Amino acid sequence: MPGFEVLYQAAALCLTYPDDDFRARLPLLREAAPQLRGFTDHAAATEQGELQAHYVEVFDFKNRHSLYLSWWTDGDTRNRGMSLVRFKELYRAHGLEFTGEELPDFLPAVLEFVSRTGNMEMLTEHRDALDQLRSRLTAFGTPYACVLDAVCATLPPAPTGARR
Q: What residue stretch is flagged as signal peptide (predicted)?
């Protein structure tokens, strides 16, 4: 994963709710991760309240754009609990304790984990989910699709026969 640490950290920040801290970091994100310029240029040109409303519209109303990786594989079933435990165990195995307000499979948390550890296991395991999310964000017409484009471009292709 040489060279992708900064991209993953920047993508993690771009995929979280765009609060005032995000706005303050935006010039650094634009400089550090040129692969995300499609999104960061849009964010820089968009009024804060509009950007926040768009984030909520894209990610908070429907699971069709879920940022929770285990939702794509397990849906809202009992199996999802075990998947979440696997994420937490992976974090612990690398000396990290997941204490975020979000679930451990929240894509920005996973991207931050990968940027810190170099362990891409959960990204590659959920490659098909990332492709589905990217496709749906593209069809929705949101600049967030550019963030998924950049992340997916760093990953090996999904295995043949992966679920669509």
A: none
